[in-house]
Amino acid sequence: MLDSLTGAIILGLLYAFMALGVYITFRILDFPDLTVDGSFTTGAGITAILISHGYSPLLATLAGFLGGMAAGACTGLLHTKGKINGLLSGILMMIALYSINMRIMGKPNISLLGVDTVVSSLTNPWAMIAVMAVVVFIIKLLLDGFFHTDLGLALRATGDNARMIRSLGANTDSTKMIGISLSNGLVALSGSLIAQQTGFADISMGIGMIVIGLASVIIGEAILGARTIFFATLAAVVGSILYRIVVAFALRAEWLKLETSDLKLITALIVIIALVVPTTRRAWKQRNMAKRRTSELTASLAGASSKRGGSL
Predict the structure, then answer these.
(1) What share of the chain has pLDDT > 90, as a percent?
(2) Backbone conformation region of residue 83, classed left if phi is above 0, alpha if psi is from -120 to 50, else beta
(3) Which range marks the domain in which residue 279 is found?
């Protein structure tokens, strides 16, 4: 059980980069970006092919990050310059990336077993957790700092009210492209690290990543909230770790009789619960508040009526 817990925390930290990327498009830009399913594999494929050809793992990881940014920039161009619907832009780029990723990798699967990677030296799971936690927190703080710059504030304002920020002279097309590029760069970085940690890159490893990213963001926000940028990005990281822990325990629960092939079903159920529970709780609070106000109003009217009757 302890091995499952440590493994889930490690995966949660590696997927935290993807959760941060999804947070940028989903919450900051309010942009339904499905490029994630393709750019995740792009980062993994570029990194795997470079490492297998003898390049430095750090250089390969950086190249994977830049490859994801390029994919995001293409989606941004389709949406801003091509005037294509945001959802459709992401779908088109996701489809195109399947063929592009196959061209990059040359074959459906690339093995990284027996070669040096950025995580191969971290054989102790607790050491890897400590190192990855520091790296994730540094990236999170850098993102927080970026969102408080003039460009970051313009990016946040674009998601809140694009028409208003355009009236103030900001170029919303540029801010959208920067946000989508940065988002997919972080997603590709996550794919790069996952490929190095698992020891392979596969052409289909990105399928369903957008749902996992959304689940992480929603779970984190349900627990920590999103009062400020600091807590919002922290919620994405915490949500990624909690999601992996929930999945690990669900797969190990014998009474559920779940198999690895049920992972997508588990993910969908987690997202459904994370979406339904807060909404139901909010509606229940509003209903109770309305009932309390109605009873208070009825009591006050009854009191006023009794006073008038007494005066008569």
Answers:
(1) 52
(2) left
(3) 266-312
